[in-house]
Amino acid sequence: MTETSWDPSNALIFALSKFVAIPSVSSAREDCKQAAVWLKKCFSQLGADSYLVSSTENVNSLVVATFRGRPPAPGAPRRPRILFYGHYDVISAPPYGWTSDPFKLSGNNGALYGRGVSDDKGPTLAVAFAVSSLLSRRMLDVDVVMLVEGEEEAGSAGFKGLFETVKDRVGEIDCILVSNSFWIDDVTPCVTYGLRGVVHSSIEISSERPDVHSGVEGGAIVEPMVDMWVYAQFFMIQLN
């Protein structure tokens, strides 16, 4: 692979070049709309039943695609149903740190470069093409639902509301697959089989006494700042 070219016969790389060329920064609504429409069409061409979920709110559309596996054997339970979560939005690409156009796919020393190649346009297309390959060979024994949003880099604003409108169509899910994880190092991949998740919380500590001046009151007194420090140490121990 040269620095500026790749094998055009590789459909996945060709599709990725088109996807990367859309500067779908989360706040760029028109570009994100273009990316969502393009991705929906790509999923459809790969054999999925795909559609867009939009809102009157100022949020980017959700792309949903379902690849249906082959029918189960007579008397067998229903096909397992796997949900893939990804996102088509990217963060902005400031000029410093780039040796090539971030919105033009390029190759160098066996690696591909472009905004979204690893987070998360590349992994999303890789999964879709892999599932499509199994589907075309009648080897897909599960249903795969791909849920791809356009607000992940901006805190997933509106994602919950959009999903609520289609959760019945998505159906019962047996397993969730995400691609926002890490390799062991630059050359050693791994399979991440569990995530801790994220908990957002606010803690407020108050005292029945008013603020006092340490230089006047003196002595050992109980104040909220001390309790805050104790709680902080407790949470750090739990995280480690």
From TrEMBL:
Coiled coil regions, renumbered to chain: none
GO function term, MF aspect, one: peptidase activity
Keywords assigned by UniProt, alphabetized: Hydrolase, Metal-binding, Protease
EC number(s) stated in the UniProt entry for this protein: 3.4.-.-
Alphabetized Pfam families for the sequence: Peptidase_M20 (PF01546)
Single Gene Ontology BP annotation: glutathione catabolic process
InterPro entries according to UniProt: Cyt/Met_Dipeptidase, Peptidase_M20
Organism domain of life: Eukaryota
PANTHER family in alphabetical order: BETA-ALA-HIS DIPEPTIDASE, DI- AND TRIPEPTIDASE DUG2-RELATED
Family label: Belongs to the peptidase M20A family.
Protein name, per record: Putative di-and tripeptidase DUG2
